[in-house]
Amino acid sequence: MIDGTEIRVRRPAAGHKNGKKFISGKNKQNAVKSMVVTDTAGRLLFCSPAEPASCADITHARQLGLVKLLANGPAMEIPADAGYQGLGAQTGGRAVTPPHRKFKKNAPDWHEEMHERQRKVHSSRRIRVGHGIAHLKNRRALARLHGRHGHMTDIIQAVAGLISHQQTATLSADPRK
User: Fold this and answer.
1) Would strands 78-79 and 95-96 be described as parallel, antiparallel, or unpaired?
2) What is the H or E stretch that residue 52 is in?
3) DSSP code of residue 99
4) Burial class (CB in 10 A: 0-12, 13-18, 19+), 157
5) Helix, strand, coil % over all residues of the chain, rounded to 5
6) Which residue ranges make up each domain of the chain?
7) Cα gap 9→87, rounded to integer Å
8) Which of 26, 53, 106, 127 has minimal Cβ neighbours within 10 Å of its Cβ?
9) Could you count the other beta carbons within 10 Å of the beta carbon of residue 98?
10) What is the rounded average pLDDT of the residues 95-100?
11) CA atoms of 79 and 36, how far apart (whole Å)
């Protein structure tokens, strides 16, 4: 499962040439964005390098080469959110996004019920990636970051590596699994 997450950072210094790049269009705050891939149990598998938050989720996926990897990789479904709309067509249907709303106004009752049911099924499949992101963001190193933007990639990937190692160690230590 795949999703992008934003992590707040300090505002760049006044007059900094790239100061506007870090402003998120979604949250209207200074942030960096990282793409997280988890398995179906919510364990972190991959955390991408940090990019300025003004970058869209699908653009970040394209820059990382995810489109080529999925298009040429094994046939599997990867649930993604609406930020990756259009990725399914580029990857041969491997990236599955929430259903489109066909009617903007005056939709028939049957269509509204069907759309809501499909949306809930998709959302319930994707909840695990949210849990993986929550594990990542609950670490103090990311919750209260006051360092330089240039070090964000190293910090995010180090925290993701520690969490992944912890999850693997917990999994192998549990005799029931």
Assistant:
1) parallel
2) strand 51-52
3) P
4) middle
5) 45, 15, 35
6) 2-173
7) 28
8) 106
9) 19
10) 78
11) 12
